[in-house]
Amino acid sequence: MTNPSEEPAWKQRAVERSIKTAKLRAAQRVQRFLDAAQAIIIEKGSTDFTVQEVVDRSRQSLRSFYLQFDGKHELLLALFEDALSRSADQIRAATESHTDPLERLQVAVQLLYEASRPDPTAKRPLFTDFAPRLLVTHPAEVKVAHAPLLALLTELMEAAHDAGKLRNTINPKRVAAMTMQTVMFIAQSSGGPDDATMHPITAEEVWDFCSRGFVA
């Protein structure tokens, strides 16, 4: 017998369809807000915009915006997380043409360095303006945003370790975290008017420096 407390199967299916439809529509609304904000950032070359500008560009309501985001900070954070996730996907794709685990790790480290360097010709205010402030005010959010990159480096580090390419004594996950932070710091510190700018550090030098700490 059917338990009286259970909903009829037809009702459960109807509710599930309703929830699925609502989630899909919410995701579409979120994406329209993200696309609108990204377009404004590209036009202005900065993150100096208002929520109302995003709402107007997306052709949605202010109420709808605040149903999806707490405010502008959360919107920028979503864009930042999305950008880092896409960067991780691109780096992963580039490593897949290599079969040697250590070569795959090298490709990932070098591409991460190149992607993290300041580019005067490319306006990337999410990284040049928003990210440094976020690191100071919300370090936990920065950690979450970088999770896809860390997961990728950890995976590649573990594969190289299992293949006997790295020192037995290392902890792949900890070394991956230290490598990511080192690579990104070197990259982001290379934008000043000094000798490092006139004779910039290369991706090969960064790999050589980092790899000496873990390659067998």
Notes on the protein architecture:
The relative contact order is 0.09. The protein is globular, with a radius of gyration of 22 Å. The protein is mainly alpha-helical and 216 residues long.
Topology:
Layout: H1 9-44, H2 51-58, H3 62-68, H4 72-95, H5 101-116, H6 125-137, H7 139-145, H8 147-162, H9 172-188, H10 195-198, H11 203-211
Helix pairs in contact: 1-2, 1-4, 4-5, 4-8, 5-8, 5-9, 5-11, 6-7, 8-9
Keywords:
216 residues, 0% strand, globular
Percentage of residues assigned to helices: over 70%
In total, the number of strands is: 0
Order of helices and strands: HHHHHHHHHHH
Q: Give the termini separation.
A: 65 Å
Q: Domains counted in the coordinates: how many?
A: 2
Mean pLDDT: 89
Protein name: TetR family transcriptional regulator
InterPro entries: Homeodomain-like_sf (IPR009057), HTH-type_TetR-like_transc_reg (IPR050109), HTH_TetR (IPR001647), Tet_transcr_reg_TetR-rel_C_sf (IPR036271)
GO molecular function: DNA-binding transcription factor activity; transcription cis-regulatory region binding
DNA-binding region: 50-69
Give a quick summary of the entry.
The chain contains 11 helices and no strands.
